[in-house]
Design a protein that fits this description.
Elements (H helix, E strand, L loop, with lengths): L1 H10 L1 E5 L2 E7 L5 E4 L11 E6 L2 E2 L8 E4 L11 E8 L6 E2 L12 E7 L4 E7 L6 E8 L2 E9 L7 E6 L5 E9 L7 E2 L3 E5 L6 E3 L5 E13 L5 E11 L6 E7 L2 E7 L2
Antiparallel strand pairs: 1-2, 2-7, 3-6, 3-8, 4-5, 4-7, 9-10, 10-13, 11-12, 11-14, 14-15, 14-16, 17-18, 18-19, 18-20, 20-21
Length: about 260
């Protein structure tokens, strides 16, 4: 999550310098609207000049509200924009819709497949900002996060890959992008069948561990649906779990067990 927040900061930010409000982001075919109060002494308006990518614009700043007309400039969708709003030292203009500079998930999948080495490969185009591609696997009756790859962020076609781990039987994988305040965009799932044997499990006699017949990803939930154990391997240490009923997700199975000691 920290990595995702760091990436979003790099792709969209608002900060102030001495007498200048600076916005950085990606052009998303929308304009910015500015609330522009009077200066503290009541003479003249707060904003004095607008620059977009270093060039002074012709936007009218001598009013209580104005629009920065990005759509009239020769800026391509997804292109980086740096907007500098110069203002008087005793006031700061208010940007009413800074979110229009945030990346939106607009990718289109050209192709996607899983090769014999278990590598998920996809080609995508029409990205309008650098967002991570989140790889998800359907198991345990839900889509589960398995990793992510950072998108390039421009409209050209780009190739991506990610090493996956399969469980027994049918496997479904998909990619997803999420922009702040936007509905997630997801791909059509790609399906692959695995010939590996389905592992089984047993609780040791001392009720200190769950043992599997083969390595597997697992999650253990308590009766309230809280994850209390999560990992990958041939056993799960349950020494510190209290007595009671638990739900075990492993391989592509969902079952339950009782901790009796």
């Amino acid at each position: 999550m920290k990595n995702l927040l760091f990436i979003l900061f790099l792709t969209f930010s608002v900060y102030t310098q001495a007498g200048v409000l600076v916005l950085e982001g990606k052009f998303q075919n929308k304009n910015l609207f500015i609330q522009n109060a009077f200066g503290a002494n009541g003479v003249g308006f707060c904003a004095t000049e607008i620059k977009v990518n270093g060039k002074i614009t012709t936007d009218e700043v001598n009013s209580s509200a104005f629009e920065i007309d990005l759509t009239s400039m020769n800026i391509k969708p997804g292109q980086k924009v740096v907007i500098e709003i110069s203002h008087k030292s005793d006031c700061v203009p208010v940007v009413l819709n800074p979110e229009v500079l945030k990346p939106r998930p607009t990718f289109e999948v050209v192709s996607m497949n899983i090769n014999a080495s278990g590598i998920l490969k996809w080609t995508a185009k029409n990205e309008n900002g650098s967002l991570p591609y989140v790889i998800e696997q359907f198991k345990w009756n839900k889509w589960v996060y398995v990793g992510e790859v950072q998108g390039v962020g421009n409209p050209d076609s780009h190739d991506y890959s990610f090493q996956i781990a399969t469980h027994s039987g049918e496997n479904k994988f998909r990619i997803k992008q999420v922009g702040l305040g936007a509905t997630p965009k997801v791909s059509t799932p790609v399906i692959i069948n695995s010939g590996s044997n389905r592992p089984t499990f047993m609780i040791t006699k001392d009720h200190k561990a769950i043992q599997y017949t083969d390595e597997t990803a697992y999650e253990v939930y308590d009766a309230f649906g809280t994850v209390v154990k999560k990992g990958f391997g041939k056993d799960t240490d349950i020494t510190n779990l209290s007595k009671g009923k638990y739900y075990l997700c492993y391989d592509n199975q969902v079952t339950e067990f009782d901790k009796k000691k």
